[in-house]
Structures are given as structure tokens and as C-alpha cells.
Amino acid sequence: MRVCHTALCGMLVGWLCAVSAAVAAEGQAGKSPVKVFILAGQSNMEGQAVADLDGKDYNQGKGTLTYVMKDPDKAPLYKHLKDAKGQWTVRDDVWVWYKPENGPVRSGALTLGFAVYGGKHHFGAELQFGHVLGDHLPNQVLLIKTAWGGKSLFKDFRPPSSGGQVGPYYTKMIEDVREAMADLPKRFPAYDGGGYELAGLVWWHGWNDFCGGKAAVAEYEQNLVNLIKDVRAELKSPNLPVAIGELTGPWGADCTDKAALAIRHAQAAAAARPEFKGTVRFVETHDFVRPAKESPNPGHGHHEFGNAETYFLVGNALGKAMVGLLPK
User: Fold this and answer.
1) Contact by Cβ (8 Å): 55, 61
2) What is the rounded distance in angstroms from the CA atom of residue 4 to the CA atom of residue 15?
3) What are the pLDDT digits (tens) for 52-68?
């Protein structure tokens, strides 16, 4: 019988403990089942907010996340976005899955960079939405972004119940959701195999329909009602909570464009349908729009001027609305 030297045994035990601790640290941060939220829409939902770019091409950095966080009155609201070392926070209990239209799947823990651009200089509503849901739920959270620029509800996202040709991006949205959930073990190695549960849908959209002609505007309310019902049926979640983000654009609360106002009213009316009582909520966002001159992309009114504060506050409001819709 071989006797282990005391020092050697101590080293071995210490090594095994360290390995065990490392493995545990790499495990799923939140509980199972994984709570899955779909974030759908067009280019604003893709993620146009500028995090830290500056210079003449970005209005000297005005309205970026870095710029906003330097404001002592606003800094406390954003402090969770950076860690003790001053690096952008990476949140392991919230995962993101996003497949841009012309690129491979991007997946990982919640942080900057799940946007249509490369690198980690942009973000969308998913950033603060993910923090709100991550703070609320003990479960692991998965955000599936299904958003593509310049897509209408009238045609591109047209749901089956609206008649006519089903929109190719409605079909793609459903396909991406199914792919992402099937992808859990592949894309997220820390997944513990404890299953998942579809928990909510966020719809932030409207630009292409407001400027898409009278028919697109007139049909928006019913098309949105049909979209909600069809997604619920397709994914077998009859009471799926839905948060509808108000069309923002460059106008804020001062909007006078009749078509844009009609879309806003249609979104609110869809949420107010009696059959959606307690499961669908309209979220006002117009107060979050910031002036072009205080934003990194002054010419991009269709993208809220790329203003980081706008996107953060929209994500925050959508997150809080979703929390209010979740089962107690």
C-alpha cells in the first residue's frame, strides 16, 4: 500500500478544490428553466445606440453612453453598466442570441455589442431590458433578438391571420426563435439542461408602416393584434406576455405627423383590446427622445439619433412593463 506524502496530498487536494471551484464558477448562473424573451422589430430594435465612439463623425461623442455616464445627476442610473475596473459589465445570468440579416449568430452573456454593427460600440434596448429582467428573476434569462432594418408589419412581418402572403420576416422570426432555443446547449456551454420556458415578447416597431402608405397605417392595429395571436399559437403559449414599445422617431412628444400619430394610437389600441387584458401592455417611449444636437448621429432621426440615453430608457421601460406582466 502506497502512502501519500502529507505535503503532496495537501497539494493534490488543493488542486482538486481549485478545479472544482472553477467548474462551478463556469456553471449556469441562474436557475432553470431558462426564461426566454423575444425582442422583435426593425432597425431600432437591431441596436443603434452609440456606446463610446466620438470625434466629428459622432458629434464629438455627445449623447453616447460614455457621455451620459459622466453626468453626475444621471450616473447613478447607469452605474451597473461598468464593473469595479471600469470595464463594461458582462452579465452571466442573462444570455443573448442574435442573428443579423447578413451575418452569423452572435451569442453570449449580456453586454454591449449585440447590435447590427461589428465590435462592441453599439447596443439596443436589450441591454437595460436584460438587466431589469435579470434583477427580477432568479432564473437564467435568454434574450432572442429577431430584428431587421426597414421591415414593415403590413408586408414583411405580415402574420398569417391577416390574409394574403405571410411576411417572410414573420416566418424568419419564428424560425429564429426555434433555432435559438434548440441552440441552447451549443451556444451556451454553461446551460445545465434544465429546460426553457417562453416568457415574453417585446415588439418595438412602426417606422416603415407610418411611411408605407394609407393601407399600412389603416391596417396596423389589426395586423399587430393578429401578430400577437399568431405568435402565441405558433409557439403554443396562449397567454404569452407582450410589451409593445411606442413608435419613437425624431419627434418625441411633439409629434404632429398624422401617420406617425396614427401608428402610435394603433399600438395603444391593440394593447387595449379586451382579449389582451392583463397580458399585453403599451409602453410610452416618446419622452425618451433626445434632441439631434445632443446625440451622436444628428442626421439619423429614424434611429433616435443613436442616442444612448434614449435606448437605455426605452429598454428600462420595456423591462419594467414586462416584469409587471409576468405571473406573480
Assistant:
1) yes
2) 15
3) 999 999 999 999 999 99
What DSSP line would sit under 95-126, residue for residue? EEEE--TTS--EEEEESTT-SSSSTTSEE-TH
Closest CA to 281 of 202, 208, 219: 202
Residue 158: pLDDT band (50, 70, 90) is very high
Could you identify the residue written with the cell 450616473? 75
Neighbour-count burial of 124, counting CB atoms closer than 10 A to its CB (0-12 exposed, 13-18 middle, 19+ buried)? buried
Phi/psi for 185 (5° steps) reads -65, -30
Q: Which amino acid is at 243?
A: A
Cis peptide before 296 (omega within 30 of 0): no
Q: Which residues are bridge partners to 123 per DSSP?
A: 49
- In the chain, the domains with their CATH numbers are 30-325 (3.40.50.1110)
pTM, rounded to two decimals: 0.92
Report whether 154 contacts 209 (CB < 8 A). Answer: yes
